[in-house]
Every structure is written in structure tokens, then in C-alpha cells.
TrEMBL record:
<keyword id="KW-0143">Chaperone</keyword>
<dbReference type="InterPro" id="IPR006121">
    <property type="entry name" value="HMA_dom"/>
</dbReference>
<dbReference type="GO" id="GO:0005829">
    <property type="term" value="C:cytosol"/>
</dbReference>
<keyword id="KW-0187">Copper transport</keyword>
<dbReference type="GO" id="GO:0055070">
    <property type="term" value="P:copper ion homeostasis"/>
</dbReference>
<keyword id="KW-0186">Copper</keyword>
<dbReference type="Pfam" id="PF00403">
    <property type="entry name" value="HMA"/>
</dbReference>
<keyword id="KW-0406">Ion transport</keyword>
<dbReference type="GO" id="GO:0046872">
    <property type="term" value="F:metal ion binding"/>
</dbReference>
<comment type="similarity">
    <text>Belongs to the ATX1 family.</text>
</comment>
<dbReference type="InterPro" id="IPR036163">
    <property type="entry name" value="HMA_dom_sf"/>
</dbReference>
<dbReference type="GO" id="GO:0006825">
    <property type="term" value="P:copper ion transport"/>
</dbReference>
<dbReference type="GO" id="GO:0016531">
    <property type="term" value="F:copper chaperone activity"/>
</dbReference>
<keyword id="KW-0479">Metal-binding</keyword>
<comment type="subunit">
    <text>Homodimer. Interacts with ATP7B. Interacts with ATP7A. Interacts (via dimer form) with SLC31A1 (via C-terminal domain); this interaction improves ATOX1 stability and controls intracellular Cu(I) levels.</text>
</comment>
<feature type="domain" description="HMA">
    <location>
        <begin position="1"/>
        <end position="69"/>
    </location>
</feature>
<comment type="function">
    <text>Binds and deliver cytosolic copper to the copper ATPase proteins. May be important in cellular antioxidant defense.</text>
</comment>
Amino acid sequence: MTVHEFKVEMTCGGCASAVERVLGKLGDKVEKVNINLEDRTVSVTSNLSSDELMEQLRKTGKSTTYVGVKK
């Protein structure tokens, strides 16, 4: 499993919930999601590629950028 980190334009708990909801639709393809609303970062532990995760995160309608693989 790889941990991918993204910056997502989240301003409130509702934004964070939207991120959880769209990533939750991937089911067991996502092992863990860690959302830091203060830093506006989302760490996703998954075997999916960063592109696949980015595509899913964009469904929130929020501006999203890929930071990289978290070590």
C-alpha cells in the first residue's frame, strides 16, 4: 500500500465530509484516509494510482493538487 498526499481546498467540516464520502465510494480499494482540515491535506493509503485517487477527489468540486507519496 502507498500513502498519497493531496492538497484539497477545504474550508469547513462539510468539505472534509465530502472528501470522506467520495473516497468511501472506492470501498476496500482505500485502506485509510487521514484528513487535516487545518493544513487542507488529505492522505490516502491505497493501491490505486495517484491519478485514480485525484479523479475521485475532484468529484467533490474542490480544487485538488497532488503533493506526492508520503514516506
